[in-house]
Target: Sex-regulated protein janus-B
Amino acid sequence: MAGLSQIADVDIDPKGVFKYILIKCVEKSSKAEKLVVRGYYRCNFHADILDETRTATPSDFTLKCIGGGRIQHNDLDKNILVYGYSQGYGRADHQITVDILKRKYPDYCITFSNDGY
Model:
């Protein structure tokens, strides 16, 4: 699983409201896998986030989006809200997303809602 360690669990914008996706990352040689979270304000569509992530990821990994939504990241109050869904990929399992985000932001209050778009 050493290969997967080079792929960050979380890469999201430091603040604001933006789309995000939950991605299954698989190392081609070992078939080891993990889930990662990516979210950027600059991406207008969830598919744009996946495209950008593929470009930034070494070719010895395959990436598959398993759902999406939105993130409201308040860096001043140390709050993150995960909510909504992706029209193209469906709703990510927001509880899994929250669990992954807590690894990078252990001192934040991170919650989710299945409401909203």
